[in-house]
Predict the structure.
Amino acid sequence: MKRFITALIIMTALPVLAAEPRIENVTVKQTGDTWRFDVTITHPDTGWDHYADGWRVLDMQGNELGTRVLSHPHVNEQPFTRSLSGVRVPEGATQVQIQARDLPGGWNKGTVIIDLP
């Protein structure tokens, strides 16, 4: 019984100990007044209880400019790229931040800074 409880505790803690989603690549394209972001993420998705479930674009002050919700796990598709169009970036901005999120961990502590063309 003691081994079973130990194994159960370890299995329950694994998603908490797993790696955060990692942003591998970002491409940016401006069309008129809005921007399109193509973000490639790697994450060890295991299923509905633990997967990369979104990313967002922030200005350099941390204000959210747009969010891309990822509606399902990508267990067999790593890395994967998803796009977000129609993002309005403040006039004169030369950089933005991209931040990834996973379930159950929430938003990554860090961001990736992207220079705008």
Residues 58 and 64 are 4 Å apart (CA to CA). The chain has one domain: 2-115. Confidence is low (pLDDT under 50) at residues 4-16.
